[in-house]
Design a protein that fits this description.
By secondary structure, this protein is of the alpha/beta class. It has eleven helices and eleven strands. A six-stranded mixed beta sheet has the order 5-4-6-3-11-10. A hairpin with a 2-residue loop joins strand 10 and strand 11.
Length: 251
């Protein structure tokens, strides 16, 4: 298993398709996606363009959809909510489809949607991603950070390192960026909240009074959900390995 890390979707190679691609946007899209699916959302459908989201979501029954729009850290007018995982509750999200467009994270998911397997990862569901990689052993894995408007984001890199660090005995490192991400995680693994508060996007969210979001997004392994693409741009909660094995045993 060979792991590569790309700081932003713009750095992803054009002429290749990996066995598995993992999108990360710790602050906050993939944290919100994982939380929504954990709360019982039927699916999460991602868009880079707000108008495309509005158009496609109109075909969905009003009582079965939620629309999330965020630009610059703020909720877009006319949408049900912005990009805060703390707004997600089972009462609001269960059995509904979330249509979401954010400044950075949904762009990453759309950039890698042609990969054989596509996953959304954050610190909150890190172990679910690690378990999937251990079980499936894809030959080539691209971990793609979302960054901020095309530039490097510290929080995405530390999450990439958090995924790769427990796999070091089983993987080959595809590039120096992956090695650097592991080193970053090992330096900060006991103070991830402090790191997120120092990151430029963390500072931006603090100015928007989103300290509670930073606290939540810095927590590791609090969700066991694995958001996995079922069709281009549409993610659902993948069945847990133990559940699949139990069903097979009964059969």
């Amino acid at each position: 298993m060979k792991l590569f890390y790309f700081h932003t979707p713009e750095l992803v190679p054009d002429a290749e398709v990996p066995d598995c691609a993992i999108a990360i946007d710790v602050l906050r899209a993939t944290s919100t996606i994982a939380t929504a699916l954990n709360a019982g959302a039927e699916a999460v459908q991602v868009f880079s363009d707000l108008n495309a989201l509005r158009s496609e979501s109109e075909a969905w029954p009003a009582d079965r959809r939620l629309r999330a729009g965020e630009r610059g850290g703020k909720q877009v007018e006319g949408f049900d909510f912005g990009n805060s995982p703390l707004e997600v509750t089972p009462e609001r999200f269960r059995d509904r489809r979330l249509f979401i467009s954010t400044t950075n994270g949904t762009r990453s998911l759309q950039r890698i949607q042609q990969a054989k397997t596509v996953i959304a990862a954050a610190l909150v569901n890190r172990q679910a991603v690690v378990d999937f990689l251990k079980q499936e052993q894809p030959e080539t894995v691209w971990i793609v950070g979302s960054g901020w408007e095309g530039s490097y984001a510290l929080e995405d890199s530390v999450c990439a390192g958090a995924i790769a660090a427990p796999l070091q005995a089983q993987i080959a490192l595809g590039n120096d960026e992956m090695l650097a991400a592991i080193a970053l995680y090992q330096r900060w693994e006991n103070n991830l909240y402090g790191l997120l508060c120092q990151a430029s996007h963390g500072q931006r969210l603090l100015r928007l009074n989103c300290e509670a979001d930073l606290d939540y997004c810095s927590r590791v392994d609090v969700l066991q959900v694995l958001p996995k693409q079922q069709e281009p741009g549409v993610l659902t909660a993948a069945p847990r390995a133990s559940t699949v094995q139990a069903q097979t045993s009964v059969a």
